[in-house]
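U., I forgot to send this yesterday:
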Amino acid sequence: MPCALHQLTLDNGLQVSLRHAPQLKRCAAAVRVQAGSHDAPRAWPGLAHFLEHLFFLGTQRFTLEDGLMRYVQHHGGQVNASTRERTTEFFFEVPQAAFAGGLERLCDMLAHPQFGLERQLREREVIHAEFIAWSRNTQMQRQFALLQAAGREHPLSAFQAGNRYSLQVQSPAFQAALRDFHQRFYQAGQFTLSLSGPQSLAQLEALARRFARVFSAGTTVQQALPPSFNGQAPLLMGDKRQLDVLYPCDNLHPGVEQAIDFLATWLSDTRPGGLSATLHERGWLEHFEFSSLYSFAGQALLHAGLKLNDAASVDQVLALLSDWLAFLRSADLSDINQEYGRLQHCREQTASALELARRDSTGQHFKALDEQGFAALERLLDTLLDGQAQTPLEPWRLPAANPLLKITPVSVPATAAPDGLTLSPLLPPTRQHGVVYLRWQLTSALRERLWQVLDRALQPLREQAAQAGVHLHWSACDTYWQLRCAGNGAVVPTVIDHALAILRLPASQSWTPAAAEQPDSMPIRALLRQLPEHVLGRVDEPLPACTISQSNLDALWEYSTWQGLSSGFGFTEQQALNQALGKVPGRAGKQLPPRIEALRRWQTLPPPASEHALLLFCPVPIEHQAAARLLAQQLQGPFYQRLRVELNLGYAVFSAFRQIEGCNGLLLGVQSPSASHAEIIGHIQAVLDALPATLSCNTADKQALAAQFDEQAMANNDVAEWAWQAHLAGQQQPLLSDLQAAILAVEMPQLQRLARQTSQAEQGWLCLANGPAPTGNWH
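Result:
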């Protein structure tokens, strides 16, 4: 199903990019503004980021309660924004029926923001909370340190996030600068509007013309050019274990963004003959990343991050990195560029509506390097090598073609589905997207250490599968291991076949222990990562200190029990999958649904931090899922309004319905730099106590929620995940239509009763926090 792309310029100067993608179910819009942090007056650091926040606080036409964020959430979509150095981006994705309303709100909020002083003062405190969290985050500290390498004269080294002290909102000069920035840059001449969806190009164009006329006419503003970097030689940072190589580049050619993506694709490739594989073979490398930290007007700051082990020689690692770049500059790239073209085509076909809209807004299309791209790459490599002519010394070779990019369906003998597999009809084969889940229940005390071996062994396959549009996810949760494979239905069976072979007999180098991963320094994220295990009632046990081997893995599989589910495959694909699943290790068997005790449980978990983070999971019986989803929809606005807007507890405040390992419930989260854990749980309790009196149960709300569970509106992965979670909860062949009917049948007494049960923890509360429980009714 080919995509169609069309670009035009409206009468007011707005650049528009339209993409008709018939395989999509949802629609997305992205507005890219050619203005960012470096375009704001230096006297007011953070002004551009602050303005981004103000846009979401409502307009005269659409108040906060009816603005873009609430509207998109109400329709089960996603919305966000990002302020970079020279651009700002606003984007959302929703079902097709809600697209016009979302686009109308997006355009209105950018054209007519409200600058009331009271709302500015409140939002400044949110910005300050973000600033505090970022300043304490080790990853952000490292990022800030890297940018300092640009030199004191370059704006990259300046503070741009904003805080309570830089955003002097009560100053008339600040208010004048804020309005001037909006008037100068937030006009049609500075915008690119990208729309993507299954609608025809004519329908998308009509939407763009209808709602984008709200923008004032204008022409492109020439953004000030940055000063040159201080020198072109690579800059080294970090220590023996973490090596950061920075490449400041000036005077690059047009098309350099795609050249950087081409370079990053092959520089990060882990197949034999490349840099990563060579460093791994020598036992030096634990992790490698390559990215662009900044790119504007022919200037870029590129970063190679290498996590090394103690045996590594920094000088030899740098020599190998430089040698590989010299090899690429001298190599014949025609074959690898064709492979890159196949990879780009696969990216285009498997991208979501939101990914397509955001990509289109940058002007970077999914294609192989053209003549301009090759010229940009040649100039880029010359710059990275500091203009030095260098003959490669190592026997490097470019990666072979990825066979997964060329797979076509092949008929196999009729094969019955294995006993442990459930076939779900919820995702029709016409979507050309198949999903399979495999879950093992284990008894071995060595399961955590053996999982790490298998995780390392699967990594090369994960990377190859991702290039072919297939996502392979390998996870562990308490006594369970889970393999999930989703993507092109013609490719998934082959990936599963390879994955099962690896799980039975991992490569020998996978048994070499790797360094422990650094925990997430953002407390709320660390708690979210640990939540599933505690839903299942994890009990920490000491890890056996013995040496592990293949015999331990063989014994683990012998005593494991597995179950699985597949959905979305056509007949030929399902037969191939059945054949591959004949090699699943372990024995097929049922796994009992999870149960959470009706108690208030508080778990204090790492990491301790100066900011207080808390997750509250309120379980709900599976038979009350419809009412619980409606309750979560009703809770979202008041919870955010009270804790984020009125109390300013912090910028990480959220509530939602969640399905976790087959257990349904409401999940509420807060991270605050000021409120204690006792204060946070007190505020949550107060919101839940007040909820029954504020509920509504009108037909429009129920219809909007039920519409989210129409297969034709749900993302393919979401359909399969809903089926899998229902399966884990013990439901036999659940139907989305049953959930929709149940939502439409919810009445006010049922909704209020569930709200009271939730506030009183009648089904239990599970609280995860990075601090001790307050005194009171906690187990």
